[in-house]
Every structure is written in structure tokens, then in C-alpha cells.
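Module 6 notes. Inverse folding takes a fixed backbone as the condition and produces residue identities as the prediction. Think of it as a translation problem where the source language is geometry and the target language is the twenty amino acids. Below is one complete input and output pair. Work through it position by position during the lab.
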């Protein structure tokens, strides 16, 4: 069955977000606390695994994994808006990450619908 373009775009963007989460763990020295970076890196790895599962055969389990890990990762960015002294670029980055996450969820979520038999 032909994969829909929106699902493909959603999975590619999700994979890139997951990769950014993993890579930012290694390079972010003046950002969020180490615990947040570790959690984001683990969630990023989970997102990448979900993309790999969802890519070849539109696996519902892969799509669920992608959606859940992305939403949890976005939740970890919310405190940036409430922490006193958080720099403006951190807030802009958190907002951009949340917006892209919601876009990815909107593109991947239709894969959860039941397929006709």
C-alpha cells in the first residue's frame, strides 16, 4: 500500500527531532539541567526507534511510540517559560520545538486509524 506523503513528512520530521534531542545531550553545556538533557536524549532515542518501526510497514506501535515520546519531550521544554532568568533564545527554541512537535503529531496521528480489512 502506498504511504501517504503527510505520514512520510511526519516521520522524517520526528526522526530529525529525535536526532536533535540525542545530539543536544552531547553539545548543550549552558542549557537545561543535566537530568532534562538525559531524559530528552532517552526520549529522542525512543522517537528514532518508533520512526524505524513505523517507517517500513506503517506499524501502529511505531506511530504510538513516536507520538508519546515526542509529547513527553515537548513537556520537558515547558519549564523554560516559567524559570526565572531563562534566556530569550531558550524560550524561542522551546516554543519552536513544541510547535514542530505538535506538527509531527498531527502528521503521524492519522496512521493510528483502523485500516479497512
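Target side of the pair, the amino acids:
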Amino acid at each position: 500500500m502506498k504511504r501517504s506523503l503527510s505520514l512520510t513528512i511526519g516521520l522524517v520530521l520526528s526522526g530529525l527531532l529525535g536526532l536533535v534531542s540525542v545530539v543536544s545531550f552531547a553539545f548543550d553545556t549552558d542549557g537545561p539541567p543535566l537530568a532534562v538533557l538525559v531524559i530528552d536524549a532517552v526520549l529522542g532515542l525512543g522517537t528514532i526507534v518508533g520512526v524505524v518501526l513505523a517507517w517500513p510497514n506503517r506499524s501502529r506501535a511505531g506511530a504510538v511510540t513516536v507520538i508519546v515520546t515526542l509529547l513527553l519531550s515537548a513537556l520537558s521544554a515547558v519549564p523554560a517559560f516559567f524559570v526565572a532568568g531563562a534566556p530569550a533564545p531558550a524560550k524561542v527554541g522551546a516554543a519552536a520545538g513544541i510547535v514542530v512537535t505538535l506538527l509531527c503529531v498531527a502528521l503521524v496521528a492519522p496512521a493510528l486509524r483502523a485500516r479497512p480489512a
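Reference fact for the lab report: The chain has a mean pLDDT of 87.
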